[in-house]
Amino acid sequence: ERSIERRAEPLQALLVAADEYAAAAELGIAWRLLVLNSAHDSSCACSSDDVVDAVKVRYREVQHIAEGLTRDALVAHAVRVDAPAEATIVVNPSARARGGLVTALVTGTGPVHVVPVGGGDPRPTQTVAVLDGEAFRVRVKAEMVATVLDMARGPEFAGYRIARYEIIPPEGEGDIEVRTHVATDARVIDLEPMRAELTALAAADPQARFHFRVMRQPTRSIVFAADEVPGFGWRSFEPVEGEGPTTGVRTEGLSLHNEHLSLTIDATSGTYAITTVDGVTVAGLGRIVEGGDGGDTYNYSPPKGDVAVDAPTAVRVRVEEAGAVFARAVIETDFDWPSHAIGDERRCTARATDTLPHTVVTTLELRTGEAFVRVQHEVDNRSRDHRVRAHFPLPAPVAGSRADCAFAVVERGLETEGAPHEYALPTWVSRRFVDASDGSVGLGLVHDGLLEYEVVEGGTELALTLFRGTGYLSRSEMYYRPNAAGPLLPVEGAQVLQRLTLTYAVVPHRGDWAAGGLLGVADDVLVPLERIRRGELGDGGRPAHGARLAVDGVEVSALHRAEGGLALRTYNPFPEPRTISVTLDGAPATGWVVDLVGRPLEAFDGTRTVRSNEILSLLLAD
Q1: 405-409: long-range contacts at Cβ-Cβ below 8 A with a sequence spacing of 24 or more?
Q2: How many CB atoms lie within 10 A of CB 605?
Q3: CA dist., res. 593 & res. 617, Å (int)
């Protein structure tokens, strides 16, 4: 949903010319798939394995549609931007102006940095790899040429996008050499003529041998810190040979630092501490706690004889990257987790005494300019019937939490209501982030799909559920819910016996969630800047830096092309009224305030007051 709503739709709406827009049919397919997945038990995975598998396939289809439409919009934009051929065009798909790290490929082998096209300060740049020479080769007899050519599909050969090719006749008894050259920009060719020519050569001389080679220019894979890109806009950057400027990113032993905070890893426990430049300090972060789960797909419920594992048997720490724009450390923590829980479709009574070894690989990344730490956990889960959470001590005790939802940030206390049929378990849902603050200091977690959290230990610690494993769609006599919620059907998929990658960001801050900038961090983490290389084709017409649409004052949840113009949906999650200001192509936007199905309610002239928690939908004349 995020890939469609926050990437494909706005980029198609703004970057593709109205008379060339052709994404409506594909977007319609994507939204239909999303709606099919929105049935109550489908969306929360309280279903049989077959149903869940079908849901996951539909989500993958949506993801592929979104990626294709996003790429098409960027290509359509790149050929219109007035920038040098090797320039990298950085596009911001969100309404908030922001910078960030961007990857790019630059030909050459030495030190390099980037500068904004048209002038500006050099940008800090870090080279992460040098790609050189041959990318693929194979020698075959003439009879096998057709098999090799099966790897030629449109502009791609052996998985590489091709800019040009050469067929070199042999010297004497040598091979016929086929050199294909990897594209370094948007310019590619159709390889069908190559296929026809080689097929003819193979048929003419069945004794010939062919040497296929995919060649790439010496190319550096770099990461650079793009300066601020306008909301819904773009900036262009070009490479310059030589070292770029330094930043506050550095490492010292097991500590990572940037301009905003310092992070130090405890090599004994595998946890870490963060201190911000404005004096917020918190330690013991990221402690992994594993416990039994005798629940089902609806509810967590511990076995009667639960055993929690909250300390590793071994810890290994290494610093993997330390450059001008980011630093990265890896923590490997070994655990012995019980293999399963003992029980049946009614309940679980205890955890098994035998254990299975697990290693949680945690990557911590600190980037220049970011006042938060990016975290990734990788684990090959082999145990059953358990829940794994990451725990985060808070900088001050709290009385509740704030969590991002569809069109609001909601406040919740430390307790929840229960009933005779369900234990009052205060685990809550958050859409993109949860924040726990006493109003003076706080800690937020921005996550990618880790929807469940709980404030524990009397308001002093935040627990984020990484995953749960259970073997039944429903159980009938669980300790936390003594009745069935559905059929007592075994489900193997819900044990999540697979390799898992789990990502989030840790945000210590002053003030509440708004002062801590959690909405902006959510964009930075979940809606990264897009980029594409300019290439030499195209007619220009758009400046190297610019933006078609600017929206200030409130949050934007959706932007897409609709009949009659651009459909813009906004909302105000803040406790006070806000004034929305919208400009389109440099002038105040005009159009209509519409209801949620697009019917006009009143005229819109570019500004309007938006009440707290109000959703405002606009149809802008384009």
Answers
A1: 405/429, 405/430, 405/431, 406/431, 406/557, 407/557, 407/571, 407/573, 407/613, 407/615, 408/571, 408/573, 408/613, 409/513, 409/573
A2: 10
A3: 6
Radius of gyration, alpha carbons of the chain: 27
Q: What's the pLDDT score for residue 535?
A: 66
Tokens 């627990």: give the residue.
463
Tell me the C-alpha distance between 150 and 221, whole Å.
29
**Around Cβ 524, how many Cβ atoms within 10 Å?**
23
Q: Which of 258, 146, 259, 157 is nearest to 215 (CA)?
A: 157
CA 478 to chain centre: 36
Q: Is 539 helix (H, G, I), strand (E, B) or coil?
A: coil
Give the confidence band of 86 by pLDDT, cuts at 50, 70, 90: confident
Torsion over CA: 51, 57, 63, 65 (sign) = negative
- Determine whether 150 is exposed, middle or buried from the number of CB atoms within 10 Å of its CB (0-12, 13-18, 19+): exposed
Helix (H, G, I), strand (E, B) or coil at 367: strand
Amino acid making up residue 90: V
∠ CA 348-377-528, nearest 5°, is: 130
CB-CB contact of 195 with 149 (8 Å): yes
| Calpha distance 39→536 (Å, rounded) | 47
- Which token pair is 497? 């016996």
- Cα–chain-centroid distance for residue 77? 22
Share of the chain above pLDDT 90, in %: 90
- pLDDT for 540: 72
Higher pLDDT, 536 or 529: 529
Q: What is the mean pLDDT of residues 181-191?
A: 85
Q: Name the pLDDT band for 133 (thresholds 50, 70, 90).
A: confident
Q: How many CB atoms lie within 10 A of CB 439?
A: 12
Reduced to 3 states (helix: H, G, I; strand: E, B; else coil), residue 524 is helix
Sheet holding 326-338, edge to edge: 314-322, 326-338, 355-367, 373-380, 499-510, 441-447, 433-437, 400-404, 409-413
d(CA 219, CA 291): 48
Q: Residue 537's pLDDT band (boundaries 50, 70, 90)?
A: low
Mean pLDDT of the chain: 95
**pLDDT at residue 201 above 70?**
yes
- Alpha carbon separation from 262 to 86, 251, 487, 509 (Å, rounded): 36, 9, 51, 13
What is the DSSP code string of 490-532? B-SGGG--SEEEEEEEEEEEESSTTTTTHHHHHHHHHSPPEEE
List of residues 6+ apart from 505 with CB closer than 8 A: 372, 373, 374, 375, 445, 446, 447, 521, 525
Predicted pLDDT of residue 538: 58
Mean per-residue pLDDT, 339-359: 96
DSSP state of 8: I
Report the distance separating Cα 137 and Cα 170, nearest Å: 17
Q: What are phi and psi of 336, to 5 degrees?
A: -110, 105
Residues 221/128, Cβ–Cβ less than 8 Å = yes
Separation between Cα atoms, residue 168 and residue 170, nearest integer Å: 7
CA 483 to chain centroid: 38
- Distance (Å) of CA 343 to CA 206, 243, 340, 346, 351: 67, 62, 9, 7, 9
Work out the angle at residue 330's Cα, subtended by the Cα atoms of residues 450 and 324, and round it to the nearest 5 degrees: 105
